[in-house]
Description:
Helices cover 60% and strands 0% of the residues. It is mainly alpha-helical. It has one domain (3-293). Helix 2 (32-53) runs parallel beside helix 9. Residues 85-101 and 288-302 have low confidence and may be disordered.
Amino acid sequence: xxxxxxxxxxxxxxxxxxxxxxxxxxxxxxxxxxxxxxxxxxxxxxxxxxxxxxxxxxxxxxxxxxxxxxxxxxxxxxxxxxxxxxxxxxxxxxxxxxxxxxxxxxxxxxxxxxxxxxxxxxxxxxxxxxxxxxxxxxxxxxxxxxxxxxxxxxxxxxxxxxxxxxxxxxxxxxxxxxxxxxxxxxxxxxxxxxxxxxxxxxxxxxxxxxxxxxxxxxxxxxxxxxxxxxxxxxxxxxxxxxxxxxxxxxxxxxxxxxxxxxxxxxxxxxxxxxxxxxxxxxxxxxxxxxxxxxxxxxxxxx
Length: 302
């Protein structure tokens, strides 16, 4: 086995494991946020280097002219969520949210070991994340926001966070809302946020990786590349954010190992190149014509 092949098979599980270990150390020493930020930065640098040395698609190493739009979308999406958290007290939301994450509320098994609670949290929240993503593909008003993400012409780590902030907010509310309703502690919610961030950037990276059984359990780059296909027989699949459990349950898991996912990805409609126009796109444009709303209609027939 060559070094490149060894890295391809081990990169995803090794990097995710190291990230989880680093996060656990941060929790142990009471600095989970600092540990997460340092770990995420190190993961981003590592993946960026791997994208240069062993890209999955050479075509995706070329500039698409969207790097600043990608960065601005990431900053606005993350900033919007953080601002809502900071001002939750002013808005009076903390009065309701805080008790939901304290002992005595809900049916959450707080007597379980934290690692088991985190696994349960990933599975439970994934149900909300799955349907938030699925509905965004099927319901035209939400698709207008989600189309910002699918308008990318290539996949790489910089456009991992390219989401309209309303699209991001919708997913976070549905995913985290389930945990809050069940009474999950804040430690579990913090762990979920970290895991989602790590798997998210790994999923979008343009690195040649091999997965085997991993893609049956987790969301991986090879599954997400199918998800960005213009052919919706392939693209309207693999809605899971972290794990693929609900894709298996609802019949939307998709992977054909005998061929490569398409290089030509994106949407049929024209997306404005400027960031500010992309923010306004869901509100100003008529309903796009590039989505079909059933398996019997294919892009080429429109």
